[in-house]
Amino acid sequence: KAGVTQTPRYLIKTRGQQVTLSCSPISGHRSVSWYQQTPGQGLQFLFEYFSETQRNKGNFPGRFSGRQFSNSRSEMNVSTLELGDSALYLCASSFGGSVDTQYFGPGTRLTVL
Amino acid sequence: QKEVEQDPGPLSVPEGAIVSLNCTYSNSAFQYFMWYRQYSRKGPELLMYTYSSGNKEDGRFTAQVDKSSKYISLFIRDSQPSDSATYLCAIPYGGSQGNLIFGKGTKLSVKP
Q1: Could you give the CA distance from residue A2 to residue A105 in angstroms, rounded to a whole number?
Q2: Measured between CA atoms, how close is B15 to chain A, in angstroms?
Q3: pLDDT of B74-110, one tens digit each?
Q4: A38: number of CA atoms within 13 Å, CB side?
Q5: b/e string for A91-111 if b means 16 or more Cβ within 10 A?
Q6: Nearest CA in chain B to A104
Q7: What count of Cα atoms within 13 Å lies in the side-chain half-sphere of residue B14?
């Protein structure tokens, strides 16, 4: 079956702009989580959505937001971009149970100039 | 203190060597422990997970948890060049697999 897909794969923006990233989970999966990966901080949890509701939230400023649609596809938005937002943004999907495996997409590489 | 600590390496070994990758964690309430592998330009993929203390073996890979010392390990036997990747330990926060705390990852290079 098809894996998790993320679009776009690469993105270049300038400071102050906003950006929207998209994630399509594996068919049947209802949970989508977003992570930010940087060389300095590693992989950090942003938020998790399950059945269109935010279930968990990491320690990121309010400029980072997300949503999930009824078909489980998810988007995350970053407003007022800063240089430090340059990172690989990964989404992961699962069925949503406490022991269900998360499957990661290939990520969106965001560069903020 | 970070909740999960991992030596970032890099680690370079010859083909066939036994590799030991390690993480420490701070919260004694953690019960599930995972190892992910991430190849360059790819997302992480789950390699193994263990529950509570003990060992779990899968082919050339063995995951080990010592809850008394809050120490988790991944051993790779007969390492192959195809094992060259970054290995990340991860722990579900609050019991939710959707919220993982990751170590920073150890970059492993296996030389032929």
Answers
A1: 11
A2: 27
A3: 999 999 999 999 999 999 887 667 789 999 999 999 9
A4: 13
A5: bbbbbbeeeeebbbbbbbbbe
A6: B43
A7: 0
